[in-house]
Amino acid sequence: MTDARPLRDDGAAFIAAVRSDDAARFAHLTERYRRELQVHCYRMLANYEDAQDLTQETFLRAWNKRESFKGHAALRTWLYRIATNACLDFLEKRNDRTPVPSGLPDRGSELLYLQPYPDRMLPEDPQESVVARETIELAFVVAVQHLPPRQRAVFILRDVLGWPASTVSDALELTVASVTSALQRARVTVREQLPDRRLDWRSPATRDLSDEERGVVKSYIDAHERNDLDGLTSLLRDDLRFAMLPDAGTSVATARDAVDGWVAGGLFQRGRDDWRGIATTVNRMPAAALYLRTPDAPEHRLFAVAVLRVVDGRIAELTGFDAGGKPWLGLPPTL
Question: 226: domain range?
Answer without folding.
Answer: 211-329
